[in-house]
Amino acid sequence: MKAILKNKKYARPCPSCGNSTVFDVQSIRSGVDCCDIYVECMECGYDPTKCHPGYRYEDVWGDIDYGTTYMAIACWNDAIDEFGYENDSGYIIERTT
Ligand SMILES: [Zn+2]
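Above: inputs. Below: predicted complex with zinc ion.
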């Protein structure tokens, strides 16, 4: 679902393209009675929670409404504050054997 924010100050600018007002709200079932709700940048598809699902908003029903969209934007902000911009490889994990 498309979410358009009325003010740029509500969301951090997308670290990939700078968009801070138009988002695509996603809801996916992540467990038997749990859904993850998060937003992707509508302009470029960037999702700062992609490799950090713990930063997605968890909701039992997964309905996308004003409240859950608000929480998903808050998660977007938290993830960008924490991780900045990451490419698709996400975590850089060094494995030693
Ligand atoms: Zn973007």
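The helical segments are 66-83.
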